[in-house]
Amino acid sequence: NDNSSRFGKYMEVQFDFKGEPLGGRVINYLLEKCRVVNQTPGERNFHIFYLLLGSGNSALLQAMQLNADPDSYHYTRQGDASRVESINDKQEFQDVLAAFKDMDFDKLEVQDLFYVIASILHLGQVQFDAISKDECKVSTPAPVRAIANMLGVSYDAMCDCLVHQTIEARGQQYKGDLSKEKALYARDATAKALYDRAFSWLVNRINQSLESKDPGRKTVLGLLDIYGFEIMQTNSFEQFCI
């Protein structure tokens, strides 16, 4: 399904006593975060990654240190379906920009969202070298520098969070090393968390634009849309919940 939203949602449209629409809101459930870091054969990641890379905006891609080929990135090539005949990535990117404008997003908000998307693509390029059985180091500094720049953190802090874990117990924090395997897992978990938080922020921001300012009584039409179960090669918590 090329047009699946890949998340469950409750949508609400509010009407006045004459039946005129006044506003609405969206509540999201169970975003399919596993898709961010892993796709089964024939499946794409979330469309926004491909729309951004296929936007044709070379200045934007250069600012985010990206190239236009989705097969260059670990998080967008696993399903071997980066090109879909039914989707024009360049045109749909323009549709996304138009939607942001309709929802009264300012330029900085749109830029920050794209920076998060670009940072996730760069995260998938980060690799590690084992120092010992329980310790590793970043072996690909270029993508980490790009991520740090776009997320507004220092390079050293970004490297540190990728190869160490912090455990809090009884009010005290303990810092430990990560093995190469655990660092790769933490990298993917970070990518999923970034996408999830950006998505939740986006839904809340859209709700602000859709919110009705009419204090009067409203009639509500609600629609619950929960996507179907997908059997993947590696099934995660989202599939279990569905």
Strand content: 15-25%
Structural class: alpha+beta
Helicity, as a percent range: 40-55%
**Order of the strands making up the biggest sheet:** 2-1-7
Rounded to the nearest angstrom, the radius of gyration is 20 Å
Low-confidence stretches: none
Q: Any idea what the shape is?
A: globular
The tally of strands reads: 7
Major sheet details:
3 strands, antiparallel
N-to-C CA distance: 18 Å
Average residue-wise pLDDT: 90
Order of helices and strands: EEHHHHHHEEHHEEHEH
Number of helices: 10
Layout of strands and helices, then pairs:
Layout: E1 8-15, E2 21-29, H1 34-37, H2 47-53, H3 58-63, H4 74-77, H5 89-102, H6 107-123, E3 128-132, E4 135-138, H7 141-151, H8 155-163, E5 164-169, E6 172-177, H9 180-210, E7 219-225, H10 237-241
Antiparallel strand pairs: 1-2, 1-7, 3-4, 5-6
Helix pairs in contact: 2-5, 6-7, 6-9, 7-8
